[in-house]
Structure formats: structure tokens, C-alpha cells
Amino acid sequence: MKFGKFEIFSIVENSFKIDGGAMFGVVPKIIWEKLTPPDEKNRVRLDLNLLVIKTKSENILIDAGMGNALSEKQKKIYGIEKPSELKRRLAELDLTAEDVDLVILTHLHADHAGGVVKRDESGNKACRFPNARHIVQIKEWNDAMSPDERTTATYFTENLKLLEESNLLELVDGRNEVADGIRVINTGGHTPGHQAILVEDGDNKILCPGDIIPSASHLRMPYVASVDLFPRETMAQKRKFLDLCINDEWLLAFDHDINIKIGKLEKAGNEIKVSQVI
Ligand SMILES: [Zn+2]
User: Fold this and answer.
1) Which of 46, 53, 144, 224 could form a disulfide with 256 if both were Cys (CB 3.0 to 4.6 A apart)?
2) Average pLDDT value for residue range 85-111
3) Residue 266: inside a domain, yes or no?
4) How confident is the model over 115-134, as pLDDT tens digits?
5) How many angstroms is it from 214 CA to the middle of ligand 1?
6) What's the rounded mean pLDDT across residues 133-139?
7) Is 278 inside any structural domain?
8) Residue 222 lies in a domain
9) Number of neighbours of residue 145 by Cβ within 10 angstroms
10) How close is the Cα of 261 to the center of ligand 1, in Å?
């Protein structure tokens, strides 16, 4: 869609499944299963929604999905049933991976950054976006390079190192304008180095909160994934972001919702109502 001086598109890179309890944290299953019915293994389906932003001079991608460099075991764990659709979705926008100038990664978990690496025809791993600067918070990079027992399964550390070896990594610290009208802010919460992205041109404003508000089922305050390292920080950021969306009319891009990719929020009594923009 046309969005001020930008053109913005949402693409679904793939879908995966995650334990429903992990996704909804302290909320009991008897409540969350009504919002998102689980499969027979208690898993809920999530989409990997990426944003493509075309500016006058750059093609920008927010997050990169899971990619196609997963092992059979990893595919099974994540319930991945089909190959990455990135190539096809970019082609629908007249783009190839080589045309991408900037990749902004909310964080480096496998479902957001797995796609920065591809397997070529001979099975070797290579950077998928060879002409792009990849924007990552410095804290996130350090955590992904030295994961601990809790975080190690969520980062594909060896794959990520390819970005640094290929000189495609651009580390930022805190708040930065990474392109004209596009800012990143360090949120903490989900991971200490998690970042949100704000895209703004006059009255055209979209917030990408990443995994701080992954779906329209996560608008209520205690709905915080149990994988979040600092859930109270997630709640504090969520409060700020919801306020921005309701009172300052920012649109909200959900990174994992299977129906609403970009929504408009409004207050309806004690609840928040979302209407679908895309
Ligand atoms: Zn995620």
C-alpha cells in the first residue's frame, strides 16, 4: 500500500508452530485456547510476517523469517511444513533478495533472523541478502554470539556469524534513525537487545513492535510469551506502544498474527478493538 513517501507491503515468509503455553505465558490454557485453538500436540500456528518498505532510494526488509537453511530436526521442532516463500513473495513485488538494501532485525531468534542465511544449490550456507546492511542492536548481537543454557536453542549462532564475516552487519545502540523516516528503538523485554521499528511520514505512521505484541491476541497486558526474558519490561513497552497506537493513531504491524498483518487500534470500553488494514 502507498504510505506517504513509502510503499509498504506485508509478506508471509512461512508458518510455524509453537507450544501454546510458551506463547501465552501465565494465561491459563482454558482462556487462551478460545482465542487460538491448539493442535493435538498443544501447538498454535503462527505466521512469519515480514514488512517490505520501498523508499525512493532503498528497498528495506523488516525481519527475515526462518529461511531455508533449517535441518530436518529443526523443521520438525518448529512444525515447518513447507519451504520458505520469501523468493516468491519478493518476486511478486518485483524484487529479488539481491535488491534488498537494508534488513532491520527486531532480534536474532531463529524465526526472525534464520532467513538471513540461505543454502545454495551445493548445500553451502551463504548470506541471503548479499547487498544489504543488516541492522541489529549491539546487545542482541552479543547475546546471540554467547547464548546461555536458556537462550541457546533460539539462536542459530553459527549461521549468524556469516553476517559479520561478510561485512554485512551494522550494529546500533539504543535509538537510531536507520533510514529517512525509519527509526529503531531498543525495547528490552522479549530479549535485552530486542528492537521496535517506527516508520513515519507526516500522518502516516506504522509501529512494528516485534515480539512485544506478536499478534492481536496479545493486546491484553498479561498476555506475554513465557519465552520473554523480562516479561515486566515487555508489559511496560506494550503499555507505551498501545498508548501510541490509540492516542497518536499509529498503525500496528503484527509479526506473527495469522489474520491481521497491519491493524488500527481503538478503545472499546476496557478492551481494545483492532480493525484490519492489511
Ligand atoms: Zn518471534
Assistant:
1) 46
2) 97
3) no
4) 999 988 888 999 999 999 99
5) 7
6) 98
7) no
8) no
9) 13
10) 14
Question: How far, in Å, is the centroid of ligand 1 from the Cα of 225?
Answer: 10
The number of folded domains in the chain is: 1
pLDDT higher than threshold 90 for residue 64: yes
Instruction: List the one residue out of 88, 12, 87 whose CA is nearest residue 259.
Output: 12
For residue 112, pLDDT beyond 90: yes
pTM over the 0.85 mark: yes
Do the domain assignments include residue 275? no
CA of residue 34 to ligand 1 center, whole Å: 21
Q: Which residues surround ligand 1, an ion (CB under 5 A)?
A: 111, 211
Cα–ligand 1 centroid distance for 253 (angstroms)? 13
Task: Tell me how far the alpha carbon of residue 49 lies from the centroid of ligand 1, in angstroms.
Answer: 10
What is the domain extent for residue 40? 2-197
